[in-house]
């Protein structure tokens, strides 16, 4: 099933120059980048994006962190990209994330875990529309798809 998902390099990943590495991993896997931008998240967008964690003790810190510097927001497309990209991102706590995953390779602490990825078709749709206008997404045919699919 061809899907789209929302992935975002968080402020720690931007500061640590991991944007290129993240893009490279998803490109090499065979997924297609259909939208991307470097941006600052407003307080309001942060609170909406992480709304499901409103009651958690770490909510305030999480909002402060995600608004503390630029993030690199992306939309990726491909076969089962939502669940496959979550596997490539790794477990929430980088100490539990397996080597070979982005968090497992580059993170150490749960509140600085490098990257966000949508966890379901519903959240992918919601997060894509929160961060991108439809005209910011580009659709194009890649000839290399014949060698991936
Ligand atoms: P996910 O990012 O793997 O989907 P969620 O449970 O949705 O994980 O949590 C959202 C984000 O909140 C995490 O990526 C992490 O940055 C932060 N977070 C989760 N649990 C904790 C915690 O116990 N302390 C501090 N931050 C946390």
TrEMBL record:
The family database entries (SUPFAM superfamilies) matched by this protein are listed as: Nucleoside diphosphate kinase, NDK (SSF54919)
Recorded hits in SMART domains, A to Z, give: NDK
What's one GO BP annotation on this UniProt entry?
A: GTP biosynthetic process
GO molecular function annotations of the record: ATP binding; metal ion binding; nucleoside diphosphate kinase activity
* Protein keywords: ATP-binding, Cytoplasm, Kinase, Magnesium, Metal-binding, Nucleotide metabolism, Nucleotide-binding, Phosphoprotein, Transferase
Point out residues bearing the modification Phosphothreonine. Answer: 92
User: What EC number(s) would the UniProt record show?
Assistant: 2.7.4.6
UniProt cross-references to InterPro entries, sorted A to Z:
NDK-like_dom (IPR034907), NDK-like_dom_sf (IPR036850), Nucleoside_diP_kinase (IPR001564), Nucleoside_diP_kinase_AS (IPR023005)
Active site positions: 116 (pros-phosphohistidine intermediate)
Q: What is its main location?
A: cytoplasm
**Which amino acid positions bind ATP, per UniProt?**
10, 58, 86, 92, 103, 113
Q: Phosphoserine (modified residue): where?
A: 123
Check the record and name the Pfam families matching this protein: NDK (PF00334)
Q: Which reaction does it catalyse?
A: dZDP + ATP = dZTP + ADP; a ribonucleoside 5'-diphosphate + ATP = a ribonucleoside 5'-triphosphate + ADP; a 2'-deoxyribonucleoside 5'-diphosphate + ATP = a 2'-deoxyribonucleoside 5'-triphosphate + ADP
Question: Does the keyword Cytoplasm belong to this entry?
Answer: yes
Cofactor dependence = Mg(2+)
Give every Nucleoside diphosphate kinase-like domain span. Answer: 2-139
The protein's location, in the record's own words, is: Cytoplasm
Q: Which GO terms describe its cellular component?
A: cytoplasm
Q: Which family is this sequence assigned to?
A: Belongs to the NDK family.
* Functional description taken from the UniProt entry: (Microbial infection) Catalyzes the phosphorylation of dZDP to dZTP, when the bacterium is infected by a phage that produces the substrate for the synthesis of dZTP (2- amino-2'-deoxyadenosine 5'-triphosphate), which is then used by the phage as a DNA polymerase substrate. Major role in the synthesis of nucleoside triphosphates other than ATP. The ATP gamma phosphate is transferred to the NDP beta phosphate via a ping-pong mechanism, using a phosphorylated active-site intermediate.
Which HAMAP family did the record assign? NDP_kinase (MF_00451)
- How does this protein assemble? Homotetramer.
Report the protein name in the record. Nucleoside diphosphate kinase
Organism of origin: Priestia aryabhattai
